[in-house]
Amino acid sequence: MKLMEEKILSEGKVFPGGILKVGSFLNHNLDCDFLLKVAEEIASLYKDSGATKILTVESSGIAIAALVGAVMHIPALFAKKHKTTNIGGEVYAAKVHSYTHNTDYTIVVEKEFLTSEDKVLFVDDFLAEGNALLGLLDICAQAGAKPVGAAIAVEKSFQSGGKKLREAGLRVESMAIIESMESGNVKFRP
Amino acid sequence: MKLMEEKILSEGKVFPGGILKVGSFLNHNLDCDFLLKVAEEIASLYKDSGATKILTVESSGIAIAALVGAVMHIPALFAKKHKTTNIGGEVYAAKVHSYTHNTDYTIVVEKEFLTSEDKVLFVDDFLAEGNALLGLLDICAQAGAKPVGAAIAVEKSFQSGGKKLREAGLRVESMAIIESMESGNVKFRP
Question: How many beta-carbon pairs below 8 A join chains A and B?
Fold first, then answer.
């Protein structure tokens, strides 16, 4: 998506360690007009997918997920983050390793909101190592729900998440795919 | 807002201790079609406010905030509950006491995203003791930004937040105001 690449080039800030800051429009200050265009693009790509539900993880996936849900007229479910694995009640849970913070956390979804009838479109702001998405796939499998694909705002193809997920057979559509960010220069996959 | 009251009556679940669970449409599984209607109502109420920015707190305020921002064509900024490695630079911070979890936490907003030029509309899913909103007001004051009002999905008028904020001169518009939930019966303010 040309618009996403332009936005990253004009507003993104690159920091050492492969960190791209896009807080001015994607995950702190939300440029809602821009994100609605992103949501419309995602909805268009997945219009024939039969998706019945958006699935994301709090917090930074929620805004895009809600907008995609509004455009596609389907609900958006967000998995909640817990610090402990000791979770009771009727929930599906999966452990996720955070590459950024080098720590593990657990994501949970209440069972009543995800069933074997659901066809699930994953939405998230970033795809790097893909651990959050693998956790969501795990939760989907527990529910017997069918994944139809993933829609990502920004993928970093120099990390392994996108490769892993595509090799596992998941359709992954990223609005921008960053190949490298060396010396602060963002290079996109053509 | 009649639609919000009907939704609470048909899908809300009341638990002891004044807890209302609305995870089926508001803060876990998001009914995006419904939330867009809520956002349109909020945008209509504040159409002459001159608001330049939505301000909310992660996580459960983000979905409504993003939708209101999309309808009003203004950005939505969400305060983060923990300082992460992805937040660099200077931040405004405020301490918030969580009534639900009986613990304190800090909310932060990067200074560059809130300035003295901003007219701020607060958006959140719940208003009970009002502590999160007081934290956002504190952050606004630090930035020199002007609050124009608050838009709340569900207010509990048997807790003191709404009263405190209105007495402090803030315009507060709640889509549903719950007066009592005794014996599991939800009663709205007429």
Answer: 117
